[in-house]
TrEMBL record:
Pfam families registered for this protein in UniProt: DNA_mis_repair, HATPase_c_3, MutL_C
Protein name: DNA mismatch repair protein MutL
Keywords: DNA damage, DNA repair
Family annotation (CDD domains): HATPase_MutL-MLH-PMS-like (cd16926), MutL_Trans (cd00782)
UniProt xrefs under InterPro entries: DNA_mismatch_repair_CS, DNA_mismatch_repair_MutL, DNA_mismatch_S5_2-like, HATPase_C_sf, MutL/Mlh/PMS, MutL/Mlh/Pms-like, MutL_C, MutL_C_dimsub
Domain called MutL C-terminal dimerisation: residue spans: 351-487
Assigned protein family: Belongs to the DNA mismatch repair MutL/HexB family.
Length: 544
């Protein structure tokens, strides 16, 4: 039987299409504020946004006679033509969907209006009060999905939902660095930006190390303009999560042809599978852009893209050619001849000699081993560090080390405190964005200059385990025997013995082989001998 759905069910379905969590609420309110010309934004979050979301701006405001209309379905001041979309929002259902999902308190006053008004709304109920108010708009959203327990239970933990909001706000701020913005989560200030340029925002959110490796880009040709920052080739990532694009100020996913145009401009400067880091704002006429009109407006399509792709490619090539750039190391290629050792047990090696003061030559059974002394020493030191931080108690610093952390590092710190303490690092807050290190692993004793690098390194990567392995690998690399350092026979043999005692002696901490092997059979084949032992005892009158 076909029947019309009841109004309350229609509202629940429609609200879920637009609002699936706190980040969606913040996105709708943030876009409304930016469309209203706001230059200052204040965002407050409680309970991951489930309990309360507050967004305040200094935009144009809403006249009091239009407040009730603003929360109705498909009402907007932005859209007149789908072929000419110039605003972030245009569907006219963001506020209405929020009203179906939570309780809304909307306060607004245009600068020219005498006095403001507040509209309280939840589903079909509304109440309007007039009163004095500052210019601009404030929206307070509370009790998200409280009347829809299934939807609320589907949300993640408040800390996870809050992290989604932090990432969302960071993304918009990276593309709109001129905006002054504050984000407060459960009473703690997460972002405080007074307005500025791309470099200031990148330094705030990604840290000064990344910011210092980005090149400013500004190009214009006809109706196209491209502004932002792109990284030097030595700063790249295996994912494109830090290569961000906005089209006509809308943060979007990369259209694949546009991404390939940027990568092609780097040519061989980037290894295969690596992506640059950066923030790009591309402005183009609206007739060249088709915005997805579904609630997810982050996917767009370029219309007549040839001229756009050519402009972007030339702009990036021009940027790179204007700076002296070191070429990135190529990806390692498969070895021919001697191959990396792949065995379960590492043999006892007997030292024979060395080549170029880097490679140790050794034998075991009927095989010749070539050992990279630097890579082998790295593996030995790495496993020693891996044992020491677990076995030795941490040391308390006589004078705590003070550090400034980026927003991403602060987020990771909150998640990794327990793992850091187990590693010997006790870190505590010491003011906004600043922290002090109270204890360190014992192996850092006598190396105070490395404390900051170790802490920041442990807050990188996708997980603590990956980040900590990277830190230990870096610390093992620093003192490892370098190329050109000659070893006496006794020292070389001691190095080979120590390598044999490692849990994973076959590779260095960075994944490079420590040992290559060449069997006697392969040597015989290459010398044209008939068998592995096609050798006779030498006589005084015979030569081979």
């Amino acid at each position: 039987m076909i029947r019309k759905l009841p109004p309350e069910l229609i509202r629940e379905i429609a609200a879920g299409e637009v609002i699936s969590g706190p980040a969606d609420v913040v996105r709708e309110l943030l876009e409304n504020a930016l469309d209203a010309g706001a230059t200052r934004l204040y965002i407050e979050l409680w309970g991951g946004g489930l309990d309360k979301i507050l967004v305040r701006d200094n935009g144009l405001g809403i006249p009091k006679e239009e407040l009730e209309l603003a929360l109705e379905h498909h009402t907007t001041s932005k859209l007149t033509d789908l072929q000419n979309i110039r605003t972030l929002g245009f569907r006219g259902e963001g506020l209405w969907a929020i009203r179906q999902a939570a309780q809304v308190r909307l306060t607004s006053r245009p600068p020219q209006q005498l006095g403001g008004a507040t509209l309280t709304a939840f589903q079909d109920k509304t109440e309007l009060h007039e009163h004095p108010a500052p210019a601009g708009t404030q929206v307070e959203v509370t009790a998200l999905f409280c009347h829809l327990p299934a939807r609320r239970n589907a949300l993640e933990a408040p800390a996870v939902e809050a992290r989604k909001v932090v990432h969302l706000v960071s993304r918009y701020l990276l593309h709109r660095p001129e905006i002054a913005l504050r984000l407060v989560v459960d009473g703690e200030e997460k972002i405080a930006h007074a307005g500025g340029g791309f470099a200031e925002v990148v330094k705030l959110l990604w840290g000064s190390v990344v910011a210092n490796r980005l090149l400013p880009l500004e190009a214009a040709e006809g109706p196209f303009t491209l502004r932002g920052l792109l990284s030097r080739p030595e700063l790249s990532r295996p994912r494109r999560d830090r290569l961000l694009l906005a089209l006509n100020q809308r943060p979007v996913e990369w259209p694949e042809p546009l991404l390939q145009a940027v990568l092609a401009a780097y040519k061989e400067l980037l290894p295969t599978g690596q992506f640059p880091v950066g923030v790009l704002n591309l402005e183009l006429p609206t007739e060249h852009l088709l915005v997805n009109t579904s609630p997810d407006k982050s996917r767009v399509r370029l219309i007549r893209p040839e001229a756009i792709l050519g402009f972007v490619s030339q702009a990036v090539q021009g940027l790179l050619s204007a700076h002296p750039l070191a070429r990135a190391l190529p990806e390692p290629t498969p070895l021919t001849g001697p191959a990396p050792v792949q065995r379960a047990r590492f043999p006892r090696l007997r030292y024979l000699g060395s080549f170029r003061e880097l490679y140790l030559l050794a034998e075991a059974g009927d095989e010749l081993y070539v050992v990279d002394q630097h890579a082998a020493h790295e593996r030995i030191l790495y496993e020693e560090l891996s044992r020491r931080y677990l076995e030795e108690p941490p040391l308390e610093l006589p004078h705590p080390e003070l550090l400034s952390l980026s927003l991403g590092e602060e987020i990771n710190l909150a998640e990794r405190l327990e793992a850091l303490e187990q590693a010997g690092l006790q870190i505590e807050p010491f003011g906004p964005g600043r922290y002090r290190v109270r204890t360190i692993p014992a192996f850092l004793a006598g190396y105070p200059s490395l404390v900051g690098e170790v802490v920041k390194g442990s807050l990188g990567a996708s997980s603590f385990a990956v980040a900590w392995r990277t830190v230990l690998a870096r610390l093992a690399c620093l003192p490892a025997i370098k190329a050109g350092h000659p070893l006496a026979s006794a020292s070389a043999q001691a190095l080979l013995d120590a390598l044999a005692g490692c849990e994973l002696p076959w590779v260095c901490p960075h994944g490079r082989p420590t040992v290559l092997v060449l069997g006697e059979g392969e040597l015989a084949r290459r010398f044209g001998r008939r068998g592995v032992r096609a050798v006779v005892e030498p006589s005084p009158h015979r030569t081979e």
